[in-house]
Amino acid sequence: MIELKEVTEENFYEVIQLKVSDDQEKSRFVAPNVRSLAECWLYRKNEDVFPYAVYNGDEVVGFLLLDLDAEESEYMIWRMMVDAKYQGKGYGRQIVEAVMEMARNDEDYDVLIADYVDGNAVMKYVLESLGFERTGFDEEYNEVLMKLDVRK
Ligand SMILES: CC(=O)SCCNC(=O)CCNC(=O)[C@H](O)C(C)(C)COP(=O)(O)OP(=O)(O)OC[C@H]1O[C@@H](n2cnc3c(N)ncnc32)[C@H](O)[C@@H]1OP(=O)(O)O
């Protein structure tokens, strides 16, 4: 079972050392975690971006970046990744399920969105199998836009 914990001084180095596979990196499925953390600093005044270290027991196995849009009542999985050596063990699915639970427990929010780069078969499968539906395609970023109504 995974656990989401705030990124702190304690786990920061582990988080930035996490890596996806070479193929996933070449396909640009996700930005490096160090960039995501830099973006958290950039947008810190908005107070709506939340980076998490994903733990399995004492080990940091992945990273999650949430972006909350209160006006649109939307939770967004901006970025998520599982280190290449921990992939295929169910952690990716558990991350999405954990965010679904957070959004459901937050009465101000109705919708969860997550966009993936076209060709990311694992992310497509995980989101579709959890009930997300395709709402469009972003030509600029080559991303499939996915949405889940968490109130249904
Ligand atoms: C919003 C965004 O951030 S989109 C970007 C997401 N991040 C990335 O793509 C970065 C690189 N990839 C990763 O970090 C990981 O592969 C993740 C996060 C996408 C998935 O994490 P994992 O821990 O490997 O996933 P998990 O073990 O939960 O398996 C997911 C499912 O995909 C299935 N799967 C594996 N390979 C494939 C494939 N090629 N095609 C379709 N499904 C597949 C698995 O069988 C599993 O199915 P199940 O849940 O029914 O058993």
Automatic annotation (TrEMBL):
Domain of life: Bacteria
Source lineage: Bacteria, Bacillati, Bacillota, Bacilli, Bacillales
Xref: Gene3D superfamilies: 3.40.630.30
Alphabetical list of PROSITE patterns matching this protein: GNAT
Keywords recorded for this protein, A-Z: Acyltransferase, Transferase
Transmembrane segment boundaries: none
SUPFAM superfamilies named among the record's database cross-references: Acyl-CoA N-acyltransferases (Nat)
Keyword Acetylation: no
Listed name of the protein: Diamine N-acetyltransferase
Domain (N-acetyltransferase) ranges: 2-151
Coiled coil start-end: none
GO MF entries: acyltransferase activity, transferring groups other than amino-acyl groups
Keyword Lipid metabolism: no
